[in-house]
Design a protein that fits this description.
The two termini are 36 Å apart. Helix 3 (41-50) crosses helix 4 (55-64). Helices cover 43% and strands 11% of the residues. The relative contact order is 0.11. The longest helix has 12 residues, at 5-16. The protein is an alpha+beta fold and 161 residues long. It has 2 domains: 5-64, Orthogonal Bundle (Arc Repressor Mutant, subunit A), CATH 1.10.10; 76-156, 3-Layer(aba) Sandwich (Glutaredoxin). It is elongated and about 55 Å long. It has helices spanning 5-16, 25-36, 41-50, 55-64, 84-88, 91-101, 148-156; strands at residues 76-81, 116-121, 133-135, 138-140. Bound molecules: FE2/S2 (inorganic) cluster (FES). Residues 81, 83-86, 123-127, 130, 132 line the site of FE2/S2 (inorganic) cluster.
Amino acid sequence: MEISTNTLQQIEDAINSYPEPKSALLKILHLFQQKDGYISQETIDWISKKLSMEPLNVLEVITFYPIFRTKPVGRFLLKICHTLSCELQNSSEVCKILQKELNCPELGGTSLDGLFTIEYCGCLANCDKGPNILLNGKLCQEITPENAKTFAFNLKRGIVP
Ligand code: FES
């Protein structure tokens, strides 16, 4: 497993900022997820050795926090708001259309071409302009069942609104 000198230094800094190395676990998980987009089994093994923990204990922490991923994500990560206001504006229908158009049959999974990951998320604080989607961190509003196909069509060509 390749880890840059910079990341290694950040890990050491995190460990040294606590009396107990194990306390740096969350910081280290964030570092790896930022770097790789997810936390692989190889990473879990590496971290557990580094912090003298059992891999299972590292995995328990990862699975406790929904922010951490154990599978790779696509180049485009779409988080579709599933909270009431967007849901009343048909975000579920939008989700189904995008899953079909972008070949993502499983929510939270990634399309075979590695380009798209679709998942639900909570309120994106733009409720009056739903349905809302967070696309690689960029808010896309008013993605309706009527324009969702065009949104997907453009996205497949790398056109981000
Ligand atoms: S309910 Fe979707 S942005 Fe608030």
